[in-house]
Amino acid sequence: MPRVTIKEIARRAGVSKGAVSYALNNQPGVSAATRARVLRVAEEMEWVPNRAARQLSAARSETFGLVLARTAQTLTEEPFYMGFVGGVESVLAERSYALALQVVTNLDEELATYRKWAAERRVDGVIVVDLRVSDPRIPLLRKLGLPAVLVGHPELADGLPCVWSDATAAMHTALGHVATLGHRRVARVAGPPEYGDVWIRDRAFVEASSRYGLETKVIHTDYSADQGAAATRDLLAADPRPTAIIYDNDLMAVAGLSVVQGLGAVVPRDITLIAWDDSTLCRITHPRLTAMSNNVVGLGAEVTHRLLALLD
């Protein structure tokens, strides 16, 4: 597709080429209303900055971007992102870099944020989380020429730099543990199926269940405490019900523990619960929850080191 030019943007926006240049380069010389109109038209026309021209300028924003497409409630409850952002910030502080954190409600808004950041040169690179299968963010980031490091398995990254933990090995370890304890009916309360890491865990869960001869059931949720609790109630209402449940995050596991105790069952005597990430939540419950440990702070730090290395 032919590259959209500044002249074409100027014609559609009804302004001069100079005004477009000022607006796209975030420079003074145009009114706020004109700047907003130019940026809106540029986004509608899918304008992409000329990479060669950008490289002529050594100026950097010294800012990395992170977009989280989650509800505000999930972000306030979920300990993963607090630890992850803490790891990112610990590295950025050493280099006097800043983090532009944008919370959006859906993937379309996330894509629009990347276009805006690229057009305004707001960030030097981005950290991308919650990879999807056939993720539309990957081709967009390539098109924008925006340096990125992805948090996810190489199968999902399509050749872009990525940092990941071995969820397959972890799932085999978890199911091997419950099988050793004598469990034969094992359930999993999983995250959204469109997420790549959930897809990989789904696959590993099936493989490991077959390996250990387990009867299994999976319920997908949105990672929230409410849905984690609801899934636990559904599982415990079944006949026969599972004797072990693995949760895709700590928040759902804690909610599940509350449901189990509310029904008068005792953990781990009557049922085994396993959380994922091993945050502080798992250590303040009674009894403490067994968890697959994941160094979330270290993950955030490593991703940031990788992104800095792309720019050095």
From TrEMBL:
Transmembrane segments: none
Occurrences of domain HTH lacI-type (ranges): 4-58
DNA-binding in keyword set: yes
SMART domains found in the cross-reference section: HTH_LACI
InterPro entries referenced in this protein's UniProt entry, alphabetically: HTH_LacI, LacI/GalR-like_sensor, Lambda_DNA-bd_dom_sf, Peripla_BP_I
GO molecular-function terms, A-Z: DNA-binding transcription factor activity; transcription cis-regulatory region binding
Keywords: DNA-binding, Transcription, Transcription regulation
Cross-referenced SUPFAM superfamilies: lambda repressor-like DNA-binding domains, Periplasmic binding protein-like I
PROSITE patterns: HTH_LACI_1, HTH_LACI_2
Domain of life: Bacteria
PANTHER family xrefs: ALANINE RACEMASE, LACI-RELATED TRANSCRIPTIONAL REPRESSOR
The protein, known as: LacI family transcriptional regulator
